[in-house]
Amino acid sequence: MTNTIPRHGASSSFHSSRRNKAGLLAAVAAACALSMPLAAHADDNQNSLWQSTKDHVSNIWDKGDDAIYLSGVAHHGRGTYTKEKLNELNEHAWGLGYGKTLRNEKGDDESLYGLVIKDSHRHPQYMAGYAYEWVFPIAHTGLELGLGGTAMLMSRQDYFNSIPFPVPLPLASIGTKKGKLMFAYVPRLSANKNNGDVLLIFGRIEM
Hints:
Elements: E1 3-4, H1 10-13, H2 17-32, H3 49-63, E2 65-76, H4 83-88, E3 95-103, E4 109-119, E5 124-138, E6 143-155, E7 165-175, E8 179-186, E9 198-206
Antiparallel strand pairs: 1-4, 2-3, 2-9, 3-4, 4-5, 5-6, 6-7, 7-8, 8-9
Helix pairs in contact: 2-3
C-alpha cells in the first residue's frame, strides 16, 4: 500500500446513506467477515455467517456515530526505500472518508468506513472496510489509546487492474472519543528494497 486517495467519483460514492450502507456492507462482508465478533443465533438461517455479518454491520451502521476521516501522511521507511525511490514517491496522502463508529458494550470501538486517498504514485486509492480497536483510557487525561486492526477491500491502479482485493492491517490511535489521530501500518512485504514498510497517518472525527 504505498498509499492512496481521491478521485472525482469519490464524493458521489458516499452521497446517500442508503447507498453507503449497501456498499460498506458488501465490502465488510467480503473482506472481513471472519475477523468480526459475530453474534450467535438459534435459527439455522440466521446462524449463517452471512446473516450474522449483515446483522452486525447493520447494528454498527444504525447505532454508530457519524465519522469523518482526513488523511494526510504516508511515511515510507527510510531503511527500506532507496533515496532515489523516495524522491519519486508521494508522501502527502491527502484524502477524505466517511464512516460510522460504535462504542460497544465492552467499551471498544467498531467502525465501518470508506476512504479515498492519493497513493504513493499520486493515483487515487479506494478503501472500504471494518475496524476493531481495544480502547485503553489514559488515567486523568481525558485521552485514550486504541490498539487493534482493520480488514478492508482496497482498489489501486498498480494492483490487479484496479480490481478490489482484501487487505488486513494493524491499527492504533490516540486522542479523545470524538477526535483521534490514527495510524495504519503496511509491513515490509519481502527482503527486497522499495516495498511495504509504510505508515499511514490520518484523523477521525466523530460527529
